[in-house]
Amino acid sequence: MKVVNTVVKLSIAISLLMSAGISFANDSVSPALTSSKAVKLQALMNPLPKQNTWIGGDASPSIQLTPNKYLWLFGDTIMGQNINAGNNLLQRYSYVTDAKSKYYFHSSVGIANKVNGVWQHIIKHYGHDSKGFPTGIINSDTKSSLLWTVNGIMLKHKLLIVTQEVPVKSLTVGTTYVLVDNPLADTSTWKYHLYRVLSPNNPEQLYTGVLRQGHWLYFYGTRGEDLTKTATTPILARININSAENAKWTALRYWHGDNQWVASSHDAKAIQGLAPQSEESFQYRPGLGWYTLQIPVLQASTRYEVHLYHSKTLTGPWQDAGMVYNTPSIWHQTDAQSKKSLFDTYAVKLHPELFDNNNIVFTYNINISMNYPGNGLQKLSDLIVDSAYSGLYIPQFVTCHFNKSSANSFAMKCAGSSGLL
What we know:
Helix content: under 10%
Distance between the termini: 5 Å
Strand content: over 45%
CATH architecture: 5 Propeller
């Protein structure tokens, strides 16, 4: 495994600095961050050394079930084997050849337990069909659509899982929420219900991010997204926790500006300053306010960079403080003729259970893009076996350190793993 260090170069325009009262200074990479934590965390995620096993997945939010038990969600999953390739090195081999493969499926999960203060390896869970092939833990109730699990949160007693529902013969995406009645039980015995909150034909969707503040549950979403383009307008909605627990989704209200919350998604006002995303996570830090890590994908020159956005309020305006992490250069390859990116960087998720003191942890995913020539899943399988691409299609860990140099000034420095052990 290689370790990637990023020297932070964060800046805020003077006008934004004056309004936010926060500045970010250049800093060097701390030696304490150069290897140990990111590499150790990566080992918790990596596939076990055996055949017929989980070898990769994406999305990867982590959700607290109990103080010492966290659930990880994976949108898509690839099965294969992770075996000794000589010199005590493990190597992944995919069983997947195309989109109809029985070893490529949606919505597996992982369970992470903390024992005596130490996080254990994330154990992956998935179901099996009548012929013994792997299936997701959360599945659509119709063959005409599939569910991608992208976010989730514990309510009072139930687990809410946020999914993108994708019709099999369409490029549109709908919002379907899943309520699990018994989230502390073994995943094979979960009892859950699907709620189609927004249909794929609706211009607005509410699946990109979810968080809790007081008695409210907030959902970030988009206006105008399909599978062929990036969403253009971030929006925000909220619902009382009790209403969510009882699946009263008609109680959702959309931010309309000036502290107005309205019933129609069509009247939602754009949240200013956030980069449009298909999935994201948010945290709060005193002195900084709300923050999220995102990739400004609408800018081709920064599609490999993770930026920090922050705001005093969830309704914004948000401010881009600049790059905090640049993915390894192997993922920056472009097609020789079209100059378009061959890999997509996405699904940046914060994991607060892994935070300590002023250190934060996030993961991101890498997949081949639609610009990659040839059969997509077959090419993905071919690259996975190559040790140079060992970080492909498996969440990659990055640790960042907040250095508060004054009441209103921060610096960040990040170090990440690249690939498998």
